[in-house]
Each structure stands twice: as C-alpha cells, then as structure tokens.
Write a structure and sequence with these properties.
- The protein has 324 residues and is α/β, with parallel strands linked by helices.
- The protein has 2 domains: 3-121 and 294-323, Medium-chain alcohol dehydrogenases, catalytic domain (Quinone Oxidoreductase, Chain A, domain 1, Alpha-Beta Complex); 139-262, NAD(P)-binding Rossmann-like Domain (Rossmann fold), CATH 3.40.50.
- 31% of the residues lie in helices and 27% in strands.
- It has 10 helices and 15 strands.
- Strands 3, 4, 5, 6, 7, 14 and 15 form a 7-stranded mixed sheet that branches. It has a 6-stranded parallel sheet with strand order 10-9-8-11-12-13, sandwiched between helices. A two-stranded antiparallel sheet has the order 1-2.
- Helix 4 (175-183) links the parallel strand 9 (167-172) and strand 10 (188-191).
- Helix 2 (115-135) packs across helix 3 and helix 2 (115-135) crosses helix 9 (274-287).
- The chain starts with a strand and ends with a strand.
- Bound molecules: NADPH dihydro-nicotinamide-adenine-dinucleotide phosphate.
- NADPH dihydro-nicotinamide-adenine-dinucleotide phosphate (NDP) binds next to helix 1, helix 2, helix 3 and helix 10.
Length: 324
C-alpha cells in the first residue's frame, strides 16, 4: 500500500470543508515512526483548526490524538519494533489511516489499556493533569468550578477531582449531562442556562471558588469572574463558545486581585520528560480503576463531517473517536 485515506481541509470553514482523500503514504525520516492508526481521538481543538480560529498552513490534515501499531521505523529509532502499540496527544494529521511522527511524540500503550481508550484519553487527560497538578495545583479538600463537565475533558476532570479528594462543581447544558458528570464524580452539576446560576454557584462555595477552570470562554467569562474568591485563579483554557474578547486588568483588580492564566497543553508537552510522566500517571489511574475512558461516540473516517457537527452542536458526551 503506498497510498492511504486521510481527512484534508483545503479552505477553512464549516464541517463540510473536510473531505477524505487518497494521499501518499508518508515515509518516516530519521528519528521518526510511521503509525498505522487504529483509532483517532476527536477534540474541540480540531474544529478550531478546521474553522481557522487557530490558523494552520493550508491544505492541511486534521486531528492531534490517536493510537495504533508501529508500521515503519526511521533511521536511529531503536527502542520500538514493528507492531508495538503506541499513542500520541500532539500530532497533526491523526484523522488518517497512518501518520508519521517523531519518536519523542509517542508513548507505548500498556497491556491494560486498549488502542481506542488511548486514542480517546491521552490529549484530554494530559490537559486535566496539567490543569490540576501544574496550573492550579490541587491538594485535596478544595471546591472548584469546572465548566462543560460532561464533555471529553470534563468527564475525565470529574473522575480525577474525585480521586484527589476535590469537590468539583460542574456546569453543563442539559440535565442528562449534569447527571452523567455527577455519576463520574462531580460533587454537583448545574445547568448552564439556569437564570440563577451565579447565586447557586455562590451557595456551593460561599467565600467564592479558589479556581475556575473555564473552557467555554465568551459566554461564561463574566460569570466565572464573579464567583471567584479574592486572590482566586481564572484558568481560561478553551473557546467552546468563542474566544473572550478582552481581559481588562482593572476588572481582575475589582473582582478581588485575581490571577488570570491562559495555559496550553503544547507548553507542557515541551517540558522535558513531562509527556511520558503524564502518560504514566494517566495509564496508572486507568489500570488501578480510578479513571474510566468513556468513548460515547464512534464514527467511520468517512463520517468525519457528522462527528464535527455533533461535537460543535453540543450533542456529545465524554470522548469521541474516528475509526479509520
Ligand atoms: P467537549 O467534549 O468538552 O465539547 C465541548 C463542550 O463545550 C460541549 O459539549 C458543550 O457542553 C460546551 N459548550 C459550551 N458552549 C458551547 C458552544 N457555544 N458551542 C459548543 N460547545 C459549547 O470538548 P473537548 O473535551 O475536546 O474540549 C473541552 C474544552 O477544552 C474545549 O474548549 C477545548 O478547546 C479545551 N481544551 C484546551 C486545551 C488546552 O491545553 N488549552 C487542551 C484540550 C482541550 P455543554 O453542552 O454541556 O455546554
């Protein structure tokens, strides 16, 4: 086989801009590995790449997360063999039958974790790992606010918070999503469109929250600012409803000398040794039964347009995967 199927975007825009093309099978160069993909993770960031919110050179492949079998090794890669099971959380072009990545971008998948689980969890759980252990290190005992608690990142956050002894108060758009978040360990979950949401959140944490993890952005920014405790930390890590227009330093002052941070997984991935250490923490949680991977939507590669429409239309819960 010297060609493969891969999703391509030639012009940024709506989901229909994606199409599956027959493209040359990439060859690994020195220090690189070709992975025959068995499952590709779907993330909201893929829709930002497709729409142009996060600009990429065009035409482009899509998809950052996946898992599969080592298919070919480039010169100098001597610690993997063909057939090894590997996964990754930052490799553009994962919506495909195969991908070539530097050896350093891959982690070996242990026997107790399936390819599909690895493809559905790595990027999302590494995000929760840095949010909870680096951006605002949680010690246990805190009560925190976490928006979109029933999503891919969200259901992992609910479980990890529970495991750390942290009370996670979630928000989600439907009662069914709220119930799912609570079943995954959230202390409680409130409806996003509740007109009394601010008041109800203040009742959950009377002095205010020490930290708010906000991936929704534009539509939750003001609410999040208003429920933080003095000296609290606003963690803005996504734009599901669109980016926040502007952060005004004076508002952070008036809301109680707040800290504001806009972290990315890429920054943490660039820290020497961090990616492997994070993968070890995640696989360990799965193998010890503290973290279950909820693959609640599966799509064929040819159904990628529906997959994005469902994610952007808020019709998904937990993780979604494409099966090439
Ligand atoms: P999700 O599965 O969480 O899907 C996004 C969710 O956002 C929806 O299900 C929906 O939940 C909620 N949402 C709120 N408002 C809107 C809106 N207007 N349109 C669409 N969705 C909305 O996605 P992921 O798990 O892939 O990612 C979660 C968030 O984390 C994203 O914002 C993503 O960009 C961010 N992220 C950031 C990273 C970083 O390092 N900075 C890394 C990984 C993810 P509901 O219906 O309950 O409101």
């Amino acid at each position: 086989m010297d060609t493969m199927k891969a999703v391509r975007v030639e012009v940024c825009g709506a989901a229909e801009q994606m199409s599956v093309k027959e493209v040359p099978l990439p060859k690994p160069g020195a220090g690189e590995v070709r992975v025959k993909l068995t499952a590709c993770g779907i993330n909201l960031i893929d829709t930002y790449h497709r729409s142009g919110l996060y600009p990429l050179a065009l035409p482009t492949g899509l998809g950052c997360e996946g898992a599969g079998l080592v298919g070919a090794l480039g010169e100098g890669v001597d610690d993997l063999t063909e057939g090894d099971r590997v996964g990754f959380a930052m490799g553009l072009g994962a919506y495909a039958e195969a991908i070539v990545l530097p050896r350093g971008a891959l982690v070996k998948i242990p026997a107790g974790v399936s390819d599909e689980e690895a493809a559905a969890v790595l990027l999302k759980a590494m995000t929760v790992d840095y949010l909870f252990n680096d951006t605002f290190p949680l010690q246990g005992g805190e009560t925190v606010l976490f928006h979109a608690a029933a999503g891919g990142v969200g259901l992992i956050a609910c479980q990890w918070a529970k495991h750390k002894g942290v009370k996670l108060i979630g928000t989600a758009s439907t009662q069914a999503k709220c119930e799912l978040a609570v079943r995954h360990g959230a202390e409680s979950c409130l409806l996003t469109d509740d007109p009394d949401l601010s008041e109800k959140l203040r009742a959950q944490s009377p002095g205010g929250f020490p930290v708010v993890y906000d991936s929704v952005g534009r539509s939750t920014y003001r609410l999040s600012l208003g429920v933080l405790a003095p000296l609290g930390t606003f963690v803005s890590y996504g734009n599901a409803s669109g980016p926040i227009d502007a952060v005004v330093p004076g508002e952070l002052a008036l809301s109680g000398s707040l800290y504001f941070t806009r972290p990315t997984l890429a920054t943490h991935m660039a820290r020497p040794g961090w990616m492997q250490a994070s993968a070890d923490r995640i696989f360990n949680l799965i193998e010890r039964g503290h973290l279950s991977v909820d693959v609640n939507q599966r799509y064929a590669l040819s159904d990628v347009v529906s997959a994005h429409q469902d994610l952007e239309g808020r019709r998904t819960t937990g993780s979604s995967v494409l099966i090439p």
